Amino acid sequence: MKQNLKQVTLITLIALLTNLFASFTAQAQEQFSYEQEARILYDLALYKGVSDTDFEPDLGGVLTKEKGVVMLLRLFGVEEAALALTDAEADEKLAMFTDAADVGLWAKKQVAYAVDKKYIKGLPDGSFRPKQALNGKLYCSMILQMLGYDGDFDYNTAATSLSQIGGLTSAQAIKFNSDTAINRDSLVGISFGSLQARTKAPDSKKVIEILIEKGIVDKQEAIVAGVIKGLSSLTISNGQLSPSFNPSIFQYTASVSSSVYSITVNASAEEGKVYVNDTLITEDGGSVNLSTGNTTITVSHRSQFDELSTDYYITMTREAPPISPSESSNNNLALLSISGGSLSPEFNTNITNYSVSVTSAVHHITATAELADASASLRINGIATANNTVSAPINLVVGENRVVVRVQAENGATKDYTVTVIKAPKPLSPKQYSYEKEARKIYDSTLFNGVSDTTFESDLGGVFTREQGIVMLLRIFGVEEEALALTDEEVDSKLALITDAADVTHWAKKQIAYAIDKGYVKVMPDGSFGPKQVLNARAYSSMILQMLGYDGDFNYRTAALSLAKKAVLQLNKQKTLIVTL
């Protein structure tokens, strides 16, 4: 009898051990639902598992409420902010709970941070219950709190609410709307889905987009992982992309021949919008003109509400047209002259812009140009002209007249030399000027120089340009010394506001810079100043009114009349300027 009992006991023990071993084997071979998602979150540094160095997700691990809080803060990229709390700050924030002492030391700061930010709440009895098993409803509620939906959802349907903002599928919502404890596998499933959830309006951004904007997640790694969508296709009408298109590769190159002047870029995306050089792409693609050499094309994939933009760059290289070795590329002039005046500055092969001043008696001029290479050809103001030969007469008007000398090299390359011929207006009756006595008076008061630094030579018949008018006006108003005190750097900075700063003569640069800065003169609508333009009475009267503080109080066309009405004005506190018209 005893022998039989021993046999039965032994058989029972063997059976128990066999079942236990089979159970352990089954657990070891279990394939968890979200193992791939756990790997993605781990690679993005949003999930740690049970190892600080290796991927050990422990997806079967059971979770408590405090563990859920720690993992949630890590997912949202704010764990470091929580760990920055001092122990005293953490204790102060946890003091509201009756069971604060039960919170694990490793989780104190994270729980305190989450409580302070109202991501989690205590229970009606004043406790937190950190060791309570974490369930789907509770974890989904925490996520909704972090997304700003406090008070906008029912705890018992938290998973459904999360699915409605893109965080879960409807099937997942049904599964996780439960009080049943969840393991790490379920937490990973909810966390991974929540990357696509949107924060509460008006921001309404996806969690993953926020993590990328904050630099917590690398955009390229996110595209590789599939948590954000890049382009699904990218092609060009000519040439071959190198490397071949891949949504996670953002830099490409391609080459085309010199006969290709434009290409069409086609791109598509599963969601969002696609732009080519900031223009929304159409069904026909985006057309881009190509220059010889490199042209960079930017293809932007923007999310649904333009919160996130992923840019792809294509550097297109268009070959230069072939040039025959026998053809010269020399398109320089050796000499250039204008009848009736001298070039300023003196001619230099490498200088392409000049000016010439002529009197009112000069009604036309001619230009003579000598080629540096006889194989090149000449056109002066569009008319073919033989090398080193006087051009056809060029009629002049009062003011500026442009003469363009175009040199075309044997290989077709062109260069333009431009001469601005400034014709003076006809003077008043010779030597019978209206204000000669007044000129003498202001000369004696050192407010007017004329054309000599030592004797009275008023040159009242001399034609004024805008830059000359500014210089004399600042002298009359006694502020020329202030203008001349400007440094070269200050002058360059102020003249950068006008497009033709290079045309200002060196002796007038500081005065013009000073006048523009003070608002005494205004820039023209096209951004230019026109320093070489002939000065008229309206313009000069306007400058005076500007200096007297009447900006906006007069009409340009009646500036002289306005100035007459304001003949005597207080200036510079103690000085009185009497303007006689």
UniProtKB/TrEMBL annotation:
Positions of the SLH domain: 94-157, 495-558
Bilayer-crossing regions: none
Keywords from the UniProt entry: Repeat, Signal
Signal sequence bounds: 1-28
Superkingdom of origin organism: Bacteria
UniProt-recorded name of the protein: S-layer homology domain-containing protein
